[in-house]
Amino acid sequence: MLIALENQKLVDAEDAARRHDYLCPACQQAVVLHHGTRVQPYFAHKSLGDCGVASEGETQQHVLGKRQLAKFFSDWGVVTLEKVLPEIQQRADCWINRAHPVAVEFQCSPISTEQVAQRTAGYRRLGSYPCWLLGERFGRQKIGWSLIDRFASPLRGWGLCLLFWDVGRQQVRVVHHLYQDATGTYSYWQSWVANLTELEAGNQRQLWVPPINVRQFRRDLDQRLLRAAPALRPLQEILYLQGHHLAGFPAVFVTQHVTLPIFGQGLLVWRAVVGAWVFSLRGEVLTPETLRRLAEEGLRLIGGHLQAGRFDGTAGLVRAQRDFMVDLDAAGAVSRVKTGWQINVEPQWAADYTAWLENDEKKLG
């Protein structure tokens, strides 16, 4: 911790003298000044005891990063280091005092999804915006659902993004416009931001999404099924009951659309599962409510998520439903009627990947 009490006054560790009596501002228990020649000065509890807002262990990255971030955000308002918030029993690494306060959390140590959600909810109860910036430990991790679920949030000009603070460069690394392509691969763009003006300006580059290789994706699905991949086995079992093979999904199901990173195994797998269910209803009218139910059940089965810690995926799923039905309508497989969609004819599935490949090569030949 960087701030302690001395005679009921807040003292910064940089200005503190040795051999004085210091107390934690939150729990009033004794803390000790650490002030070496090679480390940034900081205070530490003699014993954490019952401190309700005790912070993570003070690595030098965390100590130095908090000071850097206080300077970085200073143009937004008066910044208070380690603001103690007794109403929610939390301590913000940096508290920016403005019309809508900002609580900056510089996260360097491991933290669970539940802990992030609890802290985020606490700041929101106070009407403040929780801004999570991640340290080196998280910067080395592969971008996937675990990071996205805990820390990703929409930011104007950056789309859905993650923020990392680089202590060495003293800059924000913005992993922005997070998305999944139709094969389920997580993708994003990356920008370095040196000041608040650049952060507020947002991304200024034109973004281009590379097309997916559908043939390779089918082959990968086939290989994973042969290896009995646990994530795919229940999906193949469901399709088997309909007489289908996952890697043999119809050509009309293919799309180059990208989605919010909520689709688990990916949009193509979701379309295969939901599409099989839809065409099992031939002779009936597919109502919007039935489609919604199938879409949500399909998302669950492919390991997707409607909710994350700081954003909602409902609109993304609704968009995926709409786009799928538009594609099927354009192919003549369904028709729009007053109460929903009339099923016309089921698109042709291949018996498996090998059968699809042989048929595809005949078309090319």
TrEMBL record:
The protein's name in its UniProt record: Competence protein CoiA
InterPro entries named in the record: CoiA-like_N, CoiA_nuc
Organism in which the protein naturally occurs: Levilactobacillus fujinensis
Segments forming domain Competence protein CoiA nuclease-like: 58-180
Annotated ranges, domain Competence protein CoiA-like N-terminal: 14-53
